[in-house]
């Protein structure tokens, strides 16, 4: 059940991060989910470092750290994705049009 929750949380965090970042992100949904999962892990580590990993009730501070980490990872990951694969897709599209 832990992996299922990790995928669900990563999916939600990735989508929220994509919505917050201005402009269009080109990374596919599966990669955005992985970026969100990485953001959740990084946010948990940061929260643990600040001593707010486990509190009573809803851990709003931990969730905020997760979201901020997911936003950063999605933004950097999308830039890396476009640098690696974006130009290749554009070249293929131009070759198909000719």
How would you characterize this protein structure?
- The chain is an all-alpha fold.
- Helix content is 81%, strand content 0%.
- It is built from three helices and no strands.
- It has helices spanning 2-20, 29-50, 60-97.
- α2 (29-50) packs antiparallel against α3.
- The N and C termini lie far apart (50 Å).
- The relative contact order is 0.16.
- The mean pLDDT is 86.
Short key terms for the protein model shown above:
single chain, mainly alpha, 3 helices
Main beta-sheet strand count, sense and barrel state: none
- Overall strand count: 0
Spans of at least 5 consecutive residues with low confidence: none
Order of helices and strands: HHH
Our count of helices gives 3
Which secondary-structure class do the elements indicate? mainly alpha
Helical proportion, percent range: over 70%
Average pLDDT figure = 86
Q: Give Rg in angstroms.
A: 16 Å
The backbone outline, from C-alpha atoms, is elongated
Distance between the first and last residues' Cα: 50 Å
Percent of residues in beta strands? Answer: under 5%
Would you summarize the structure shown here?
The protein has helices at residues 2-20, 29-50, 60-97. It is built from three helices and no strands.
């Amino acid at each position: 059940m832990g992996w299922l929750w990790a995928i669900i949380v990563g999916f939600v965090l990735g989508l929220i991060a994509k919505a917050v970042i201005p402009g269009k992100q080109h990374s596919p949904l599966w990669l955005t989910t992985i970026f969100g999962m990485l953001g959740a892990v990084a946010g948990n580590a940061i929260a643990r470092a600040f001593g707010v990993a486990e509190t009573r009730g809803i851990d709003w501070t931990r969730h905020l750290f997760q979201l901020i980490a997911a936003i950063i990872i999605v933004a950097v990951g999308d830039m890396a994705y476009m640098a690696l694969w974006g130009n290749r897709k554009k070249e293929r599209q131009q070759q198909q049009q000719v």
